[in-house]
């Protein structure tokens, strides 16, 4: 069994309030869950209005497939949202 995840730190453009941030984060989390079937959550930086830390995770039997699934989600998020990825930290067990 493979446990794999990423901690994604993003800068959200056009976010001038916590309400704007929550709207974007909620949309990202919903999109990743529905399209890529990953477990997702906002895991840090709750009080900053333009920065978020998101966690994506997956459990599987093949390391390469798990990595591909997470990479596809990361690419999808970068392409569809006005964000800048500041840091990606991979977690594998």
From TrEMBL:
It comes from the Bacteria. InterPro entries: DUF503, TT1725-like_sf. Pfam families: DUF503 (PF04456). This is DUF503 domain-containing protein. It comes from Alkalibacterium pelagium.
């Amino acid at each position: 069994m493979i446990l794999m995840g990423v901690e994604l730190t993003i800068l959200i453009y056009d976010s001038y309030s916590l309400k704007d941030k929550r709207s974007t984060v909620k949309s990202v989390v919903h999109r990743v869950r529905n399209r890529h079937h990953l477990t997702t959550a906002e895991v840090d930086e709750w009080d900053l209005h333009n920065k978020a830390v998101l966690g994506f995770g997956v459990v599987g039997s093949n390391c390469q497939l798990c990595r591909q699934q997470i990479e596809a989600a990361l690419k999808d998020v970068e392409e569809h949202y006005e964000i800048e990825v500041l840091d990606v930290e991979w977690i594998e067990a």
